[in-house]
Write a structure and sequence with these properties.
The complex is a heterodimer. Chain A is α/β, with parallel strands linked by helices. In chain A, strands 6-7-8-3-9-10 form a six-stranded mixed sheet, sandwiched between helices. In chain A, strand 7, helix 7 and strand 8 form a beta-alpha-beta unit. Chain B has a six-stranded mixed sheet, sandwiched between helices. Classes of the chains: A alpha/beta, B alpha/beta. Chains A and B meet through helix 6 and helix 7 of A and helix 1, helix 8 and helix 11 of B.
Chain lengths: ~240, ~260
């Protein structure tokens, strides 16, 4: 699904030589990433390579110490997370960060808190329920009583409820049954078709690269490789390290 | 693999939460020295099955038989079951993150240690001897994985790389000296290479004489690891057998694998 037109588009999100620290430990070194408007960009790398941290600097959860992050030609690197979310950048966190004491429906409502409750709210809700019928089945159940995989679906659904300009997805396929992994990537394709820009972190590198226009490989906090999804899929270094060949 | 003795067996195991039937009369068996994988859609009851076996939940109905004597352990407390020899890991890794690697394993030996509160407070000779032996045993367990993790024994658990945290969790489970290990999605969040290294570890553990039940979604892992596979859907066992047969089963394809896997 390489969309050639994607290469022509303007850059919507640009990380420019970002560095970040946890205490005195540096975890990102001069990370530069360009995300064109309407594209799907994959971020690959081993565990602890800095993928999630990169996403967290975009949403302002981790402050970049040096470097800039431009979103629609505005530097957002020093902005508050709440402000960044309002600008249309939404993160689907890895794993089970849902509200356990709220119902499935309330969790989804929370995802839409930045938008007015209009007709499009129920349309998006329908869309999320169609995507994950299990969430519709369990909409009155408390989030905390869902199984691990169902919580993963809920986190993704909640992110979609904001209808964001940019969706940051941190391992959306983790813990999901094979049939649902297919669903997740179908969703990514659909979102892309409707113009949403997606930055994706995945251990399932093969699927991610198949769907991505561009990919970046992070190793111990540095970008060591980048290219189109297809280039990376065929790169022997990527094949050996991330595709299990 | 040995068509050997059955070490764990469930009979019409049933778990209801209010109106929800999470486990619907599941019959299951595990042979000694073998690996059984449990697969199934999200929310089909896989983790609940582990929770019932380890005593976190008391089953609504049915029985769980464990060991050579086929002791009925249904309704026993988690610590009693751990003491009898069933240990587990969790979907989202649960370690004592601010304790060192070796301390995390030592905690696992708790079920097998004797020094009580008073002797510990008094720091008696017997306490020191026991602690030394626990420390030694814990290092041996870590060594089963790779030398690398032994070097990190004094690091804080939270600073280990992700894949090694998973190994540490398995080490802690092994430290309880179990006969059966229950592993809940051990390869989750790992890339293909890390997953395949972990698979080798798990097979080696089986070959050392442990019996293992694994919940997994990675079909490569399931194919490589399993002596037998069972499939759950809405709490019901819908298939069981060799991986190759399961893979072709129409019900399994529909409920779990999806068409593209054919």
């Amino acid at each position: 699904m390489i969309n050639q037109s994607g290469t022509e588009n303007k850059i919507l999100l640009e990380l420019n030589r970002i560095s970040a620290f946890y205490g005195s430990i540096q975890v990102l070194f001069d990370v530069s990433i360009k995300v064109p408007d309407g594209s799907v960009v994959a971020l690959l790398g081993r565990n602890a390579a800095g993928k999630t941290t990169t996403m967290s600097t975009i949403t302002g959860l981790v402050r970049a110490r040096t470097g800039t992050i431009f979103f629609e030609n505005e530097d957002i690197s020093q902005k508050e997370t709440s402000e960044i979310v309002r600008k249309g950048i939404m993160m689907v966190p890895e794993g089970r960060r849902i509200f356990p004491e709220m119902t499935v429906f309330e969790n989804l409502q929370m995802g839409a808190f930045i938008r007015k409750k209009d007709k499009s709210f129920s349309e998006t809700l329908e869309y999320v329920y169609a995507l994950f019928p299990r969430l519709a089945e369990r909409k009155k159940q408390l989030g905390g009583t869902l199984s691990g995989g169902e919580q993963q679906m809920l986190a993704t659904g909640r992110g979609l409820m904001a209808s964001p300009r940019v969706l940051l997805m941190d391992e959306p396929s983790m813990g999901l049954a094979p049939v649902l992994v297919d669903n997740i990537f179908d969703t990514i394709r659909q979102l892309h078709a409707t113009g949403t820009t997606i930055l994706l972190v995945e251990q399932n590198a093969r699927m991610a690269l198949k769907h991505a226009h561009r990919g970046y490989v992070l190793e111990t906090g540095r970008v060591t490789l980048s290219g189109t999804g297809e280039e990376l899929l065929n790169d022997p270094r990527v094949r050996a390290a991330y595709l299990g060949e | 693999m040995s068509a050997g003795n059955i070490i764990l067996r469930t009979e019409k195991l049933r778990m209801e939460f209010g109106g929800l039937v999470a486990l619907n009369d599941v019959d299951f068996y595990l042979e000694e020295n073998s690996i059984v994988s449990i697969i199934g859609p999200n929310g089909s009851g896989k983790t609940t099955f582990f929770n019932v076996i380890t005593g976190v939940y008391r089953p609504t109905c049915g029985h769980i038989y464990f060991g050579k004597k086929q002791t009925d352990i249904s309704g026993k407390k988690p610590h009693q079951i751990a003491h009898m020899g069933i240990s587990r890991t969790f979907q989202a890794i649960r370690l004592f993150s601010n304790m060192t690697v070796i301390e995390n394993v030592m905690v696992g030996q708790h079920t097998r240690s004797f020094t009580g509160f008073l002797l510990s407070v008094l720091h008696t000779r017997s306490k020191r001897i026991e602690e030394d032996s626990i420390r030694r045993k814990s290092l041996e367990i870590l060594r089963m994985f790779k030398e690398d993790i032994v070097c990190k024994a004094n690091m804080l658990a939270k600073n280990l790389p992700y894949a090694d945290r998973r190994r540490l969790e398995i080490s802690r489970a092994l430290a309880t000296e179990p006969k059966i290990l229950l592993l809940d999605e051990p390869s989750a969040g790992m890339n293909p290479r890390e997953a395949s290294e972990l698979m080798d570890d798990i097979k080696r553990i089986r070959d050392m004489g442990y019996s293992i039940v694994v919940i997994e979604h990675d079909m490569k892992v399931v194919q490589n690891l399993s002596d037998r596979v069972i499939v759950l859907d809405y709490g019901k066992k819908i298939a069981e057998g060799q991986f190759e047969d399961i893979r072709r089963d129409e019900h399994v394809i529909q409920a779990y694998l999806g068409k593209k896997q054919k």
